[in-house]
Amino acid sequence: MTTPITLPVGATENSVRVHPGVLFTITDAFLRRKEENERVIGTLLGTIADGVVEVKNCYAVPHSETHDQVSLDVQHHHTMANLQQRVNSREVIVGWFSTGDPDASRNRDALIHTFYGSECANPVHLALDTSGGQDGHMGVRAFVSRALSIGGVELAREFLEVDCEVRSTEAERVGLDLLSTELQEKLPGDMDGLADSFERLQHSLQQAQDYVDAVVAGKRKGNVAIGRYLAETVATVPHYGRDEFERMLTDQQNDCTLVLFLSKLVQAHLALADKLGTMQLPLI
User: Per-residue pLDDT tens for 166-212?
Assistant: First the structure.
């Protein structure tokens, strides 16, 4: 009796369109990754129409990997997928992403791709080259896969590259133009914004003081509406004694310490959940 050989069939998706926000999310996840992780992987969300996959959103999935196996935090993946469905039910799982050179990790990619094959039909693999290359630009590539099976047993998986382009809306294009020009160097930082706010406040206080001094000295006729507004503004400023101020400051410090303690406790619980909810994908 002969064993049937199942040849690869053509992929139904023939092109991928990626929104810029997806690339920013992937890059941010790569910059925030753990030091021991060479790359980050995650889930792609979007829509599929007429063989075109439009990737609109994504989120990173905690993982660890060696040369022969990959561990995914499946619980985190399912939790994030459910939350995304509540926010936008039109966006579904369309595949997964990874950073780095995809040709250097095909064995592990096949395991991850098989897992996402159980999450959606014909998943797409989006690879973002974060090395920058020689020209300093990040390359974006998209792949689909097809399996070679004998007797219903999958023996190998082949990745085929498909057309991939970055597609942005008008609002996204405005943000990209801003970030791609010299204007981004002029954007104020947190400290610059705080200093500018203090300067505007000081200027407003100086104007109010000059107005009051001029009215008191008889150099300017007073306005009843302005005077009432200034009086109401001054009345809203609280007055505290030294002991009361020190007590309030101590209470604020204690509250901050409590919040810091709770955040560390949450981090410990998340780390424990990460270990318990991790699923290993053995090498085929």
Answer: 877 766 666 666 555 555 556 566 677 777 888 888 888 898 889 88
Neighbours of 24 (CB within 10 A): 15
Looking at the chain, the whole-number percentage of residues with pLDDT higher than 70 is 78
Q: Domains of the chain, with CATH numbers?
A: 5-184 (3.40.140.10), 188-237 (no CATH)
Q: What three-state secondary structure class fits 151? A: coil
Estimate the crossing angle of helix 20-31 against helix 170-179, to 10 degrees. 50
Q: What angle do CA 172, 173, 178 make, to 5 degrees?
A: 100
Structure letter (DSSP) for residue 67: S
Do 14 and 160 touch, CB atoms closer than 8 A?
A: no
* Residue type, position 74, single letter: V
Do 26 and 58 meet the contact criterion of CB atoms below 8 Å apart?
yes
In DSSP terms, which residues pair with 55 in a beta bridge? 18, 46
In sequence order, the 6+-apart residues with CB closer than 8 A to the CB of 231 are none
Q: How far is CA 144 from CA 61, 129, 132, 189, 245, in A?
A: 20, 17, 24, 41, 64
| CA distances in angstroms from 218 to 59, 88, 142, 215, 221, listed in the order given | 66, 64, 76, 5, 7
The whole model's pTM is what?
A: 0.60
3-class SS letters over 106-127: HHHHHHHHHHHHCCCCCCEEEE
Task: Report whether 98 contacts 128 (CB < 8 A).
Answer: yes
In single-letter form, the type of residue at position 109 comes to D
Please name the residue ranges forming H helices in 131-223. Answer: 170-179, 190-216
pLDDT digits (tens, 9 = 90+) for 94-127: 999 999 877 777 777 888 888 898 888 889 999 9
In which residue are the tokens 């022969």 written?
A: 68
> What residue type is assigned to position 61 of the chain?
V
